[in-house]
Amino acid sequence: xxxxxxxxxxxxxxxxxxxxxxxxxxxxxxxxxxxxxxxxxxxxxxxxxxxxxxxxxxxxxxxxxxxxxxxxxxxxxxxxxxxxxxxxxxxxxxxxxxxxxxxxxxxxxxxxxxxxxxxxxxxxxxxxxxxxxxxxxxxxxxxxxxxxxxxxxxxxxxxxxxxxxxxxxxxxxxxxxxxxxxxxxxxxxxxxx
Length: 193
Known about the structure:
This protein is an alpha+beta fold. It has one domain (about 35-190): HIT-like (HIT family, subunit A). About 35% of the residues lie in helices and about 15% in strands. The chain is built from six helices and seven strands, in the order ββαβββαββαααα. Mean pLDDT is about 90; it is low at about 1-10.
């Protein structure tokens, strides 16, 4: 079994800086107080094409998770620096819900996923709104006895089962299926900004 993918580069960054790792990309040195979401927006062309949005209406993006190479692990985020739902106007909250619903539908119909866990974290430090849509691949769950119930879960172990070298083709295939589904969505064509 491969070692888990590091979440950040060891803290050898100069004072006032930190290093960020993005899936398939070289580590970036950023200001210590830099928001990860804002950094992703600023350096998007420098990131691996694995992280290209499968949906982007200028305000809301959907893309592969930037840290964990779980095929189909989508992140729904906003481009503006907003930390939580209650900081958004109601129209944006409704659009987020619609996009999230369409992504889930794509995961069910295109990836044949019966179970997806959706998480949203209001971070204390450097918050930037995003929600994770983590697919629970039944074969991996069963093979490794992963309990998906949140309060009994060993989901961190599940995340470490996936390695970029082994899953890159599947990451790309899942992202393309989701992108194609979202492109065809009549529901989304009515809300694009």
